[in-house]
């Protein structure tokens, strides 16, 4: 059975020479390490240095700067105590949630051509007890003064394969963040904040984004700790209308499962090349718990309860297998509150580049119509 190599940036390749490869079809994502290496060492690498892609890597990053001090601080008399700057208050939308804190310490990992930054921090999950790395990216609009009181939608991006110790969506070569920025300019995408956590606690097993008895609580990590982290650091939304997942392969499964499991917290998912049912070997001896994390059972439960509505957009390349599973799931459970669409990516294979292409061709616009976006201040 053919194995697809994990996508890794050049730095990750150097750090992970013995990186374990997945052995199951839905756990494989083909993003060639050889191609990535060629891009970095060849013309792409030269261009990267020329464009200062790596300039500032490792330096502290702050998101959501308040660019304007209050007038009182500027006009105070000599020797008088300056009036402290007051944080921005939410806009008229009662759904806007200002950062709750405490703020995390972010370090830059890469810089995009438009000057936006992908940064990394270490998150100790208060509810799961699991500690892992999380990468973040905020669009240019996030630091625009006219959006200083606006909430932004959050897209939690999950990788396939081992999903540990890195999340390959944080690698600029895949173009996820660029696709969002270009979509914003074209009016086809909301300016999403992208949160990119590790998917598993190690590279040995797959945890299906679930609280498997006796194991790290990756379900709690994904459904509670990661969103809490986003709320602590960014202007977001209180309601599920500002929250969605996207993922590829095993990450697609986790995103879809979490949306169906917590429809009161998350509204939509773009699931690319993923499977439908849990299949971690760690479920052995825990059939009831596995059934409770099966998207088929979760969808049926949601249908029986008549809501709330959730939106699932499957993406599948025409050169990869798995569409029949998606089609069957859509036929059986795409009813009532469970809204399911399937996007074919022409000549698409099981890799992140092609899934980003599918997002640019329509899936970003699809999810942007489902969620709510920031409103600029009048004036």
Q: How would you describe this structure to a colleague?
A:
This protein has 379 residues and is an alpha/beta fold. The chain is 30% helix and 17% strand. The protein has eleven helices and twelve strands. The protein has helices at 10-15, 33-41, 43-50, 71-74, 176-186, 218-233, 250-261, 287-292, 295-305, 323-333, 352-370, and strands at 60-61, 96-97, 106-111, 117-124, 131-137, 154-158, 193-197, 236-237, 243-248, 268-272, 310-317, 338-345. It has a ten-stranded mixed β-sheet, with helices on both faces. The chain has a two-stranded antiparallel ribbon with strand order 2-8. Helix 7 links the parallel strand 9 and strand 10 (268-272). The longest helix is centred in the last third of the chain and has 19 residues, at 352-370. The chain is globular. Mean pLDDT is 85; it is low at 1-51 and 66-85.
Spell out the blueprint of helices and strands:
Elements lengths: L9 H6 L17 H9 L1 H8 L9 E2 L9 H4 L21 E2 L8 E6 L5 E8 L6 E7 L16 E5 L17 H11 L6 E5 L20 H16 L2 E2 L5 E6 L1 H12 L6 E5 L14 H6 L2 H11 L4 E8 L5 H11 L4 E8 L6 H19 L9
Parallel strand pairs: 6-7, 6-9, 9-10, 10-11, 11-12
Antiparallel strand pairs: 1-3, 2-8, 3-4, 4-5, 5-7
The H/E string reads HHHEHEEEEEHEHEEHEHHEHEH
Q: How many individual helices?
A: 11
- Computed over alpha carbons, the radius of gyration is 21 Å
Strand content: 15-25%
Overall mean pLDDT score? 85
Tertiary shape: globular
The major β-sheet equals: 10 strands, mixed
Please give the order of strands in the largest beta sheet.
1-3-4-5-7-6-9-10-11-12
Distance between the termini: 61 Å
Poorly predicted runs are: 1-51, 66-85
- Indicate the structural class: alpha/beta
């Amino acid at each position: 059975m053919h194995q697809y190599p994990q996508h890794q940036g050049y730095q990750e390749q150097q750090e992970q020479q013995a990186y374990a490869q997945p052995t199951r079809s839905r756990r494989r994502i083909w993003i060639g390490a050889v191609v990535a290496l060629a891009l970095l060492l060849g013309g792409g690498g030269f261009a990267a240095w020329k464009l200062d892609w790596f300039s500032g890597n490792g330096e502290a990053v702050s998101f959501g700067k308040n660019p304007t001090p209050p007038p009182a601080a500027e006009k105070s008399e000599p020797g008088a105590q300056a009036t402290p700057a007051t944080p921005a208050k939410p806009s008229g939308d009662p759904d806007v949630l200002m950062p709750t804190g405490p703020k995390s310490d972010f370090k830059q990992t890469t810089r995009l051509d438009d000057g936006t930054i992908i940064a990394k921090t270490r998150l100790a999950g208060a509810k799961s007890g699991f500690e892992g790395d999380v990468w973040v990216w905020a669009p240019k609009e996030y630091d625009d003064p006219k959006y200083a009181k606006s909430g932004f939608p959050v897209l939690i991006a999950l990788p396939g394969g081992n999903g540990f110790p890195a999340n390959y969506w944080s690698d600029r070569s895949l173009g996820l963040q660029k696709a969002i920025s270009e979509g914003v300019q074209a009016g086809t995408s909301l300016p999403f904040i992208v949160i990119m956590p590790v998917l598993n606690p190690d590279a040995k097993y797959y945890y299906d984004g679930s609280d498997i008895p006796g194991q790290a609580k990756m379900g709690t990590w994904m459904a509670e700790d990661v969103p809490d982290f986003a709320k602590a650091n960014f202007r977001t939304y209180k309601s599920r209308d500002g929250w969605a997942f996207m993922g590829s392969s095993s990450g697609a499964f986790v995103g879809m499962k979490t949306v169906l499991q917590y429809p009161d917290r998350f509204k939509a998912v773009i699931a690319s090349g993923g499977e439908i049912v849990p299949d971690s070997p760690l479920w052995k001896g825990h059939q009831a718990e596995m059934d409770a994390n099966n998207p088929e059972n979760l969808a049926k439960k949601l249908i029986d309860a008549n809501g709330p509505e959730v939106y699932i957009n499957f993406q599948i390349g025409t050169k990869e297998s798995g569409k029949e599973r998606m089609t069957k799931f859509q036929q059986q459970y795409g009813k009532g509150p469970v809204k399911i669409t399937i996007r074919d990516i022409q000549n698409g294979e099981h890799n992140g580049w092609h899934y980003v292409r599918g997002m640019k061709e329509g899936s970003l616009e699809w999810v942007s119509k489902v969620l709510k976006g920031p409103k600029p201040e009048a004036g």
